[in-house]
Amino acid sequence: MVKEIERNVFTFSILCVTWRLVLKCQWNPKNYDMGQNKSVIVVGGGIVGLSTAYFLQKEGHQVTVLDKSGIDAGASFVNAGYLTPSHIISLASPGMITKGLKYMFNSSSPFYMKPRLDFEFMQWAWYFKKSSTKEKVAKAMPVIRDINLLSRGLFEAIKASGDLGDFKIGDKGLLMVYQTDEARDHEMEVVQKAGELGLEGKELSMQELKTIEPNVEFNAKGAILWECDRHTTPPLIMQRMLEYLVKSGVSVHKNEAVLDMSLSAGKITEVKTDKGIYQADEIVLAAGSWTSHLAKKLNLKLPLQAGKGYRINTEANTGITMPAILMEKKIAVTPMEGFTRFAGTMEFSGINHKIRKERVEAIAKGVEYYYKGLHVSETDKNNARCGLRPVSPDGLPYIGRPKAVENLVVATGHAMMGWSLGPATGKMVTELISGNKLSMDIAPFNPERKF
Predict the structure, then answer these.
(1) 422 and 48 in contact (C-beta within 8 Å)?
(2) Phi and psi of 325, rounded to 5°?
(3) Which residues, at least 6 apart from 434, have a Cβ–Cβ distance to it below 8 Å?
(4) Cα 128 from Cα 303, distance rounded (Å)
(5) CA atoms 42, 44, 48, 49: torsion sign
(6) What is the pLDDT of residues 97-128, one digit of tens each?
């Protein structure tokens, strides 16, 4: 009887101590290491890498970001800043290879493929051609819509959180401005297909166009308005994201290149850089156009090509208040916070940051042709910059875990939608690492899919 009383007293004492600890911790799961919180290395400091770090630290993971640059330039800083659910047609669409061959010897064309003997590029081009069918494009459309809508919502949630301070998400939509009936008819086909997916686009007359963009005069036949689209100012958001991550305890290492990764028993055990050696529970490869090179060190094949894009910024008063794509010239125009940006072209010439003046000039002349009276100064053209967009053969990103490497997640290949899809990608990478339910089916983004 005495022993039983002693056992009950002991049990009661343990319960009291436990309860006091619980009250002290206020039932906060983050105060307990239940094996969920992990150390994670994110290789890449673009919008995908930083978005991944953002959501990972929100989940309580210990995050280190490694980037070979100063995280102040590249595709995430020079893009048009669009959030584009309307862009449901992937880059790998029927006729694109033919256009590439047509423009191969015209280095100022909107879609330029530099002639070169490169086995990986030729193999990628073959996969691209195989992916450019009506059936595959149709299958990809709802997937592109879903991930774009997810990402748009996440951009809005990040803004609402106040984590990055105040920044603008322009909600006027996106204009597709055309000068020819052919371009108009092509976009109206997209309007019909998008309408079947619940995305609305509408044709505007020149008078309607003048009403919503009163301070400019277009040299055009008309435009189509996508009200579902948004626009942002990428350099501002990237800067604010970096500041927030550092304040939140994320370790950000700039100008530190990953040289190699050690693999043992199907797991990455070390990440070696030009400045040190790192270890972590999970590794995320989000290094943009360089990701396929890093994947090779793990014996992984990741078909990827760098698609160079250019931008011109002007602080001149252009009168432009609506983002627009100048259809025939494939030029994006975006009014940003403090300046107007003209961006465009897709150049496949390998990994390099060479500025081709003829391509910059083509953007400037195209803008001046569509907007009457607008002039792009020589200073603005001389200050043009470029960025490398990672392009998969079918235009869909790579998001997921390769089977051969247990603690690796790949996140790249977003082509021209990298900015638009950054938060959605970061969110789903975090869900994979945390073991949470995925926001959408990522099977179409399988990094080991067949082409």
Answers:
(1) yes
(2) -110, 125
(3) 36, 59, 61
(4) 10
(5) positive
(6) 777 667 667 888 888 888 888 999 999 999 99
Amino acid at 122: M
Across all residues in the chain, what is the average pLDDT? Answer: 91
Sheet holding 267-273, edge to edge: 258-264, 267-273, 277-278
- What pLDDT digit, counting tens, does each position of 388-421 carry? 999 999 999 999 999 999 999 999 999 999 999 9
CA 22 centroid distance within chain: 42
| C-alpha distances in Å from residue 60, one per residue of 37, 44, 57, 191 | 6, 20, 5, 42
| Block residue for tokens 């073991």 | 435
pLDDT for position 411: 98
Residues ≥6 apart with Cβ < 8 Å to 276: 256
Q: What is the pLDDT of residue 94?
A: 86
* Cβ–Cβ < 8 Å for 175, 224: yes
Q: Which helix (H) or strand (E) holds 225?
A: strand 222-226
Amino acid, res. 331: I
User: Which DSSP string corresponds to 23-38?
Assistant: HHHTT-GGGS--S---
